[in-house]
Amino acid sequence: MKALLTITLSLFALSSSTLSLAQEQQQSPADFVNPFVGTSNFGATHPGAQYPHALTSVAPFNVAFEHEKLNKFEKDAAWNSRVYIHENKFLTGFTHVNLSGVGCPELGVINIMPTAGDLELDAQKYGSTYSDEHAKPGYYQTTLDKYDIKAEATSTLRTGLSRYTFNAGQGNIILNLGLGLTNETGGSLKIVSDHEIEGSRTVGTFCYNPQDVRPVYFVARFSKPAKSLGTFKKMPKFTGVEGEWMQNNDSIKSYPNYRHVMSGDNIGAYMRFDTEAKQQIEVKVGISYVSIENARQNLATEQPTFAFDETRSKAKKAWNALLSRIEVQGSDNNKTLLYTGLYHSLIHPSIIQDVNGEYPIMSQQHTAQVGNTQGKNRYSVYSLWDTSRNLHPLLSLLYPEIQSQMVDSALAMYQESGWLPKWELLSMETQTMVGDPATAMIADTYLRGVDTFDIEQAYRAMQKSADTLNNNPIRPENQDYLTLGYVPVDDEEPYDGSVSTSLEYYVADFALGSLANALGHEQDALKYLTRAQGYRHLFDNDTGMLRPKKRSGEWPTPYDPELGRNFEPAPGYIEGNAWNYRFYVPFDIPGMIDLLGGDSRFIDALNATFATNNFDMGNEPDITYPYLFNYVSGQEHQTALNVQKLMAQHFTDQPAGLPGNDDAGTMSAWLVFSMLGIYPVSPGDMDYATSSTAFDKVTVHLDQAYYPGKTLLITPLAKDQKQPMLNNKTLTNGFVTHQQLTQGGSLKLLAPVE
Amino acid sequence: MKALLTITLSLFALSSSTLSLAQEQQQSPADFVNPFVGTSNFGATHPGAQYPHALTSVAPFNVAFEHEKLNKFEKDAAWNSRVYIHENKFLTGFTHVNLSGVGCPELGVINIMPTAGDLELDAQKYGSTYSDEHAKPGYYQTTLDKYDIKAEATSTLRTGLSRYTFNAGQGNIILNLGLGLTNETGGSLKIVSDHEIEGSRTVGTFCYNPQDVRPVYFVARFSKPAKSLGTFKKMPKFTGVEGEWMQNNDSIKSYPNYRHVMSGDNIGAYMRFDTEAKQQIEVKVGISYVSIENARQNLATEQPTFAFDETRSKAKKAWNALLSRIEVQGSDNNKTLLYTGLYHSLIHPSIIQDVNGEYPIMSQQHTAQVGNTQGKNRYSVYSLWDTSRNLHPLLSLLYPEIQSQMVDSALAMYQESGWLPKWELLSMETQTMVGDPATAMIADTYLRGVDTFDIEQAYRAMQKSADTLNNNPIRPENQDYLTLGYVPVDDEEPYDGSVSTSLEYYVADFALGSLANALGHEQDALKYLTRAQGYRHLFDNDTGMLRPKKRSGEWPTPYDPELGRNFEPAPGYIEGNAWNYRFYVPFDIPGMIDLLGGDSRFIDALNATFATNNFDMGNEPDITYPYLFNYVSGQEHQTALNVQKLMAQHFTDQPAGLPGNDDAGTMSAWLVFSMLGIYPVSPGDMDYATSSTAFDKVTVHLDQAYYPGKTLLITPLAKDQKQPMLNNKTLTNGFVTHQQLTQGGSLKLLAPVE
């Protein structure tokens, strides 16, 4: 639908050796990252130390216990999915497995806390306020006020390393398996020696659907042998005579020097040390989802000594290696926003395999079988309803070798469990959210030229999701969908989103049909692309909305398109209302324009969405909408204007600088694309809608193993120029294709409105 | 102090081959045992299947949950030390490690319950009433009314075997690690296959002093592979938003087909089967205190198949091998009382080593080290404050080879931990009760001629307890005791029993002094025997009581000798009042007679004890008192009369047929001795006081590896004869020595009063 573009290659390219030198002399991309962004306003990121796509991170944990003055948000009082909340002030340790930017409480366990003086084992009592916080990629530090202990953390892919600086006296380090962001309970530990503890903690049941769990295994080693040690456990509440006799009724009971295995809901271990002034004691923790032995091997391989500064330096280098794929010239504030956004886009999916390649396989039967990646990465934490929209396209553009392995992992899950993932966590399919986003993600990846995975197997997997009529965990109600052309509202268990589900199926079918075309499967292509057009069944000419429809073809009444705006249940819609989903056929906006009665009515409807506050920057279905102005010739400046406005309004260099949950990096990926000035309109559609770039110059280093171009340069046009240009040829509308961009060259976009 | 006795050997001896033949033709001793005796009136025995001195037993568990109509006694509402209470009616499974006759709640875990129909995992809901109970040594059966399932249990030394007979339909077997008599929590399990579960459960903190715990490991195997299986866990109570979202808030959550390790306070696993009418499914459980691997090896060795009937038969044979050391002629009722008493005397101490000889060593440092018995038994569960009085003397008389190994185990504990045991449980010193009873037990054993242990090491161990002034865990306040001659009341943390403690030290010192004499250590003998006389410091001439005394020598006032009668705290006395302890210098009753002002005053005081209801048959300090009449010439018939009266009053062939806690067999040992007509007056004193025998004829088969005699025959005198006779020579008073009896021969005792 868009005019052909003329392409000219840019000759500009900064060699990576020059870049490294430049980095040393000036601030590197990692230096601009502000890990506190997203730690307020429900962003659900954390400022802890982490590697890109790491299995382990070390995050400050400040969400346990209500506290009138210190803790505004308590982890269980609300649906809190955050290990760290900027407004909170009461810290109870550092957790070693953490999720970033998700919407349900999970992980946030293997909690280690340093204290001083007499041993207190009740976290509510040993917790402390903290100050002097500082965080950079791969490093976090703070000072625990109550004990005047400086706590620092860094990490490798599979190990955390903390360094605690004590004063003279008695230092204590407490490993608490009871505390956890997860609502799942249960752990087991054993003090192996005076400087080692091993064990496991149960996690899982993400969003409680389904109720599946897994153990996470750990080995913690201390840089100094403990002078004394022990375990502890919260005892239940006894009443009557036993309540009187129990020395630890409904309270913490300690087991000095206990060396056997200890299991329970709320257990822990402690190590005590005589400390001199400024004495540093380090704790390294190896994590595995396979076994204690693997956790120990991960630790031995990645952190054989206690090399804190070297580890911190390596982590920063690992971040810079990825962040520097984009080089920018512009304001420090914009650099911070961009690199922080890119940082948050490089956390999930995260690896799950151990250094020996072992990982827990995904099985419908929940068997505890172990697979081996044979040298590849096995990724986990697939929040595909979110990330299929823009995060994976971003990875395809910038890091195709990583995205390809993410597809590999998804295909391995298909091999193991029989189905592609939907919302996968630690090899568990959580069935969170709706649709068939793996199909959208995989087809999109291949169409972008990232084809280093088994496309034949992938195609079979996607077809299975698309065509299995019954007992289809990916596409429930697929028989109705295929028969009627939409998922009818009739059988909704209250509010499971028949419209939303249908729309996701159309998106997936469009992507699959486009892939079928590319693979030369013409009949398949026709079939799936026709299915994608089924959205027209749900278009209600009277309201101009995509509306829930009965099996009989009738519209159920009454109908309120505003219902669902505040996340209250709304028949037909998941996480949104009719407005939020109004234009959610991103693969066929021209078709939607037709349905709505032409360009003018479409622009009116689009404007009305923003004007009536029915646009939600914080949720995925509508995040493409600010870019939809491009579909009407002459309205492209509206896209630039709206995107700029939304960035200014929702994205800042502050803890509240994300518009709600980062959604495993989806919001951040939106920001990264938007700051570059391009946005992928739909999975399977190779068009990027253009807006304005936030920088004086952007250099994207392309991976030449995948793309013909070496670099893509993006710069702003002069203020009076209103037509974007690719390689000095005018783009006659506001779109440019992925294939054009990955040829490399120079893209000139509208100057920002000031 | 007693006159010399003339000895004549009895020629009577029934050969053991003749005995076996006789057993086959008529009821064997085991057939007379009623395992329900002691399951009411706080006896704390259980009717479950068990081997003599076994590590494992399989007991019905009916003490969970309050139930207005069904469960009169709930395990946590009172200080309940019983897995099974006869009055209760609500059964929630069968437990595989159990204590017998103790006074604190411990063990009662590894709980397995069969159910039928839909799967219910909440024990409060799946529990059932039961009927048609039957129990014999090594066998228990009942029918679960709710499911019409016949449940049978038998066992070997280290394994339990249950057989459940289902109806046609759906059968379920639930392993619940949450339920437990112990107040300790926490377990871990893993479903290994469709017919095997392994795991561990924490137990310990017996009487909460000190707070030490241990894991008990298990492997459970099923005779039929499960059709479906899973684990479950009790979830905590969440409030607010999370409470609304949680599908299993404050309730049981199941994890179908979960195969990873699961840990927690309240967890379990289930196996489900399609069953035909009368289908029997068996579950065998191997137990170990060392490791899961050892539990599996115990199971493979002792129960390689599912040989229920053979196992039951072997268990009965093992019991008969021990019970038949005493043969009797008399009423069936008396046979039941005697053999049930002997059965209860042969449960603790019980073995703790695995088939490979491994056991958890006793360490002050709680290190999880493992020892190896090298073919011997390692005994555990030493309730020595109780059992040193009569149970170990009974074992020395009847089973010297067993008693010798019990001393060996106590000495191994000394080697491992530095101290002899006091109240040892699973290689943990619980420090329950007072005194130095291991010294009394070991010295007594040696003096009885059971000398097949390392007496030199034993003597060093006993001297360490006796002579270590400070930090002496066996004899706290030993410095005061040695300086003043008694433990002063001054430093009592309210009511820790200065008089009781002193009296126990005197008893131990008497035994140790007597041993020193026997070993030729004359100076030591003088020292310890002199110490034993220290009781005179506590004798208050005004009240005629052994009374708490201050360090200054003053008696604290006010003073009420009745205080403590109902187990309320009484300064100076543990578990009793001044009356209960009044004559508790069993090694020197003649001395006490002198202090009290002569025979007549002594007899008056003794009679007053019984007359004023200040004698407590259910507690140890005074259980020798009915025999003390023998110390006054001409009063011997009073002993016979009192003992007969107490037996009739407190010991019956009924669930309430024990006078309170059996105290690890101490009450039962009292009954056995009393029915024979002899009673060991004091540890270290080789005199038995005689009373009357309850039988027409008693034949005690002596162990000729230890004793010169082959059999000891006890018969009643004619009613008009008032002087007991040994080998047809009149005993001039009511005593006979252990050495006399173990020569073998014929003892004729007073005829029972009718």
From TrEMBL, chains A, B:
Residues 32-288 form the Glycosyl hydrolase family 92 N-terminal domain. One of its GO terms (molecular function) is peptide-N4-(N-acetyl-beta-glucosaminyl)asparagine amidase activity. Pfam families: Glyco_hydro_92 (PF07971), Glyco_hydro_92N (PF17678). Keywords: Signal. GO terms for biological process: carbohydrate metabolic process; glycoprotein catabolic process. Residues 1-22 form the signal peptide. InterPro entries: 6-hairpin_glycosidase_sf, GH-type_carb-bd, GH92_a_mannosidase_put, GH92_N, Glyco_hydro_92, PNGase. One of its GO terms (cellular component) is cytosol. Residues 294-749 form the Glycosyl hydrolase family domain. PANTHER family: PEPTIDE N-GLYCANASE PNGASE -RELATED (PTHR12143), SECRETED PROTEIN (PTHR12143:SF39). NCBIfam families: aman2_put. This is Alpha-1,2-mannosidase. It comes from Paraglaciecola polaris LMG 21857.
